[in-house]
Every structure is written in structure tokens, then in C-alpha cells.
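User: Could you check the structure of this?
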Amino acid sequence: MAETSYSRLLEFIFYFEDVNVAFCKWSSGKRDENGVYTMPYPIYDDRLKEFIQAVYDSDLMMNHYLNYIKKIGSVSDIVRGINDVEDMDTLRAFLTYFVRQERFCDGLWAKAAEDKIFLQILLKLRELTDSE
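Assistant: Sure, the predicted C-alpha cells are below.
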């Protein structure tokens, strides 16, 4: 895996380092005239959506990522373990987890961005690809 194939993703490091970025705002839940409630949902910053699309466009997404995740433990174990990752497959599993789990947990992308998880993954990606 050549570093150049990930250069598009690495361009997002500065974006995730910026403490002034609002990664997400939430729509307000409401009740329509028929009494149907709409739940609040995340409205993501365009740049964050570009990052997610760049991840999907890369060859980093992994179908069997949950097998790697189970070996690590809980999500908090994943977050604590990012800096200790030494192989590309584990890093790919972590990234895939935080991208795909949005469909089960609205707002996960924002949480991963705000907690600098995406940043940590990108920094580790740069480190691993620099050593190849």
C-alpha cells in the first residue's frame, strides 16, 4: 500500500486538528400536523462528509473489521489502542468501525471527529505509510 494512495486522506489532518470547526449540528425534532414526530438527526459539515467519502473511495474499508474489533475489546479499548497500532489491518479495522457504525448510532462521526479519533487514525496512517 503506497503512501500516495492515502495522500487524499492525509490532507484532512489539518481539518481535524482545527479546534474551531463545528463538525455537526443537530436538526431539531418536531411534531408535524398529523402528530408524527421526527427525531433529531445530525447535519454534518460538508468537509466531514468529504472525508467520509474519501475513506469509502480508498482501499482502507474492511469487510471483516468486527473480527479485529472483537480481539481488541470495547470501543474505549480501541480508542486507547490507536497509538499502539503497528499494522495496517488493525488500523483499517478501527477506521472502518468508526465510519460504518454511524448507521447504528447517529452522531458517531461527530463524536469521532470531536474526540480526535479520526485525527489519531490519520496520524497513525501517516506514520505507518511513511515507514513503508
